[in-house]
Specification:
Blueprint lengths: L4 E9 L6 E10 L3 E11 L3 H9 L5 H25 L7 E12 L4 E5 L4 H5 L4 E3 L3 H5 L9 H7 L5 E5 L2 E8 L2 E9 L1 H9 L10 H5 L4 H8 L2 H4 L8 H13 L5 H17 L7 E5 L6 H10 L4 E3 L3 H20 L7 H4 L9 E3 L1
Parallel strand pairs: 1-4, 4-6, 7-10, 10-11
Antiparallel strand pairs: 1-2, 2-3, 4-5, 6-12, 7-8, 8-9
């Protein structure tokens, strides 16, 4: 007999490198799944760690192995400090995504560091982690994994959009949940803000002063990825090998690049959403006021909702916590309609 209530810590590190998101949640499963975020925190990476994670794409196999061990130790320390700081006692599991370094599902490969058995040795709790590998082995994209949470927790919305390092969306189509990555977001915007000595473009104030460059916008919108049908997903490889070379080929100001790329993001999202629907937006990009305005401009009849701050900031940590609970219950937590895997499945490694 399964429990009705679970207390779980969800842990997520995204490609935007903001830091490690941690959320201590209470889930209830009676007639339907409900949640409450009891404690939450983002632990920023040091400059050294940001540099390592940003450049790990180029690491050798041995360097990646060393990084994986170091990062697992870092993650365990961050989780232990979170538990101690908030005096958490009732913990059914720690459910951790780790940090994506390589994502090449077309080559049957994806790597999220921080999921080594060492995590179990350093934390005296049940650990659920490494959610993507099994899906890729089953022929799926290994991403996105959040849509099962959208289905179970946010079904009142027609679309659930997350704006983090990349934009990804999920929705129901012909009775099946569909989801895919749309375009890069903060992986590009934060990079260009850093050229001005800033961690990010707060509210889009810099982008708002820029001028859209028509030729650059046309090149971005014309990329093959956007014409492909789902399932499809993105990783830093796409940004490094495709997006940055295009952006670097234009000699224009940082504000103009930001303005143009914000327009590109808004246009690509708008191609997915149909009129007169309800759209829930979460992730750090939800605070980019200029992007929100451009998105509403391109979707004039769509009702855009931003939830309360904790859900905006910690939705991915929340849903990976839910994925961990579903894995412990041996229930489906990855949808084949989303990832393209051979079948629905319950994914994740469990360290008891």
């Amino acid at each position: 007999m399964f429990k009705e209530n679970y207390n779980v810590i969800g842990v997520m590190s995204g490609t935007s490198l903001d830091g490690v998101d941690l959320a201590y949640l209470k889930f209830n499963c009676t007639d339907q799944w409900t949640y409450e975020i009891l404690q939450s925190e983002t632990v920023a990476y040091s400059e050294t760690w940001v540099d390592q994670l940003k450049n790990a794409f180029h690491f050798s196999t041995s360097e990646l192995e060393e990084l994986n061990i170091s990062y697992t130790k870092l993650l365990a320390s961050i989780i232990a400090d979170f538990i101690s700081k908030h005096q958490l006692v009732a913990i059914d599991a720690v459910s951790s995504h780790g940090h994506t370094i390589l994502h090449q599902p077309h080559n049957g490969f994806t790597l999220q560091i921080g999921n080594l058995p060492l995590l179990r040795d350093l934390l005296p709790y049940t650990i659920v982690c490494d959610f993507r590998v099994q899906d890729v082995a089953l022929g799926g994209q290994g991403a996105p994994l959040v849509p099962i949470g959208d289905e179970l927790l946010f079904s009142e919305y027609d679309y659930c959009l997350n704006l983090g390092g990349f934009s990804n969306i999920s929705f129901n189509e012909n009775g099946s949940r569909i989801a895919f990555d749309i375009s890069p977001v903060n992986t590009v915007l934060n990079y260009y803000a850093s050229q001005l000595g800033l961690p990010y473009d707060d509210g889009g104030t810099i982008a708002k002063t820029g001028t859209i460059h028509p030729e650059l916008l046309a090149q971005l919108n014309g990329l093959d990825f956007y014409a492909r049908s789902y399932p499809k997903s993105l990783g830093m490889e796409f940004v490094q090998e495709t997006i940055f070379p295009i952006l670097h080929s234009f000699t224009i100001s940082v504000p103009d690049v930001l303005a143009t790329f914000v327009e590109h993001i808004a246009i690509q999202i708008a191609t997915v959403c149909i009129p007169n629907t309800k759209l829930l937006i979460t992730g750090g990009g939800a605070y980019h006021t200029f992007l929100m305005n451009r998105l509403q401009h391109h979707l004039p009849t769509v009702a855009i909702t931003l939830p309360e701050d904790k859900t905006i900031q910690f939705k991915e940590a929340l849903i990976f916590a839910l994925l961990g609970v579903l894995r412990l219950r041996n229930e489906v937590n990855v949808l084949a309609s989303v990832t393209g895997a051979g079948h629905n499945h319950s994914s994740g490694t469990v360290y008891l």
